[in-house]
Specification:
Pfam family, one: ABC_tran
Protein name: ABC transporter ATP-binding protein
Order of helices and strands: EEEHEEHEHHHEHEHEEH
CATH superfamily of one domain: P-loop containing nucleotide triphosphate hydrolases
CATH architecture of one domain: 3-Layer(aba) Sandwich
Organism: Vulcanisaeta souniana JCM 11219
Largest sheet: 6 strands, mixed
InterPro entries: AAA+_ATPase (IPR003593), ABC_carbohydrate_import_ATPase (IPR050107), ABC_transporter-like_ATP-bd (IPR003439), P-loop_NTPase (IPR027417)
Distance between the termini: 60 Å
Keywords: ATP-binding, Nucleotide-binding
Strand order of the largest sheet: 6-7-8-3-9-10
CATH topology of one domain: Rossmann fold
């Protein structure tokens, strides 16, 4: 199996920044009587970070799970690289170069760090035996690339702190993402310095590797720092979109605060 070069060289003239990569069209999703997504529409382009803002329960994680193949929409369509797609499983999304950092980490506690990083991407020889030395070496490179201090890669995930488990998930997704990187609250459990590194990773992979990146967060300041474009989700709908240069953290705070106050007033 060929190992992906972590930071490929991008030839001048090849970078297609701005080309549409993903379009979400009128996507709905319900869990019984609870409607999680209500006609969501959004676009992600190559070479940009799109922040998805919203409170808990707004539908952000449900949307990410649909884009990454963990859930199927009840209605609506995903268009990837100009073609309609319908994922039957996460492996279908991975086959198209889509990787995800889940909000719930999705690490297997009984496996060492390097095996978690290569989960579903295991390196084997012709007989099917694992090539642990190669995976350990490449796992170290993946962790070095995100710049977060970690124990040895043969340490079991159960011995890691919450932040270190999050770093493992980030390293896995950034190492294998080829076209679209989904980051569902990737700074959860991380300190200020580590969070800044993850934000820089999102921007670096968009600009240097020409990936589309969706950065999910409830934090207005992190969204503004990370993103080229910002969507705000509320009760399963995207209610506004702002380009970074057209707004500010203060304006976003004012808009969102006013919407929350308005919603609370309606419920009385």
């Amino acid at each position: 199996m060929l190992i992906k070069i972590l930071i490929p060289i991008i030839t001048q003239g090849v970078n297609m920044v701005g080309e549409e990569l993903l379009r979400v069209v009128d996507v709905w999703k319900s869990y019984g009587t609870v409607v999680a997504l209500r006609g969501v529409n959004m676009v992600v382009r190559r070479g940009e970070v799109v922040a998805l803002l919203g409170d808990n329960g707004a539908g952000k994680s449900t949307l990410i799970k649909i884009i990454s193949g963990y859930l199927r929409p009840d209605r609506g369509q995903l268009i990837f690289e100009g073609k309609p797609v319908r994922f039957k499983s996460p492996l279908d999304a991975k086959a198209l170069g889509i990787e995800v950092v889940h909000q719930d980490l999705a690490v297997i506690l009984d496996l060492p760090v390097y095996r978690n990083i290569f989960l579903t991407h295991e390196v084997t020889n012709k007989l099917g035996f694992l090539k642990d030395d190669i995976m350990k070496e490449e796992a170290k490179k993946a962790l070095d690339a995100i710049g977060i201090t970690m124990p040895p890669v043969d340490t079991k995930a159960e011995a890691l702190s919450g932040g270190q488990r999050q770093a493992t998930a980030v390293a896995r997704a950034t190492y294998f993402a080829k076209k679209l990187l989904l980051m569902d609250e990737p700074t959860a459990g991380l300190g200020v310095v580590e969070s800044k590194k993850v934000i820089n990773i999102a921007k670096k992979y968009a600009k240097e590797l020409n990936l589309g990146v969706i950065f999910v967060t409830p934090n207005i300041f992190q969204a503004y720092e990370a993103a080229d474009r910002i969507y705000y989700m509320e009760q399963g709908k995207i209610v506004f979109e702002k380009y970074k240069e057209e707004t500010s953290p203060k304006e976003l705070t004012d808009i969102i605060t006013n919407r929350i106050i308005e919603l609370r007033g309606r419920k009385r």
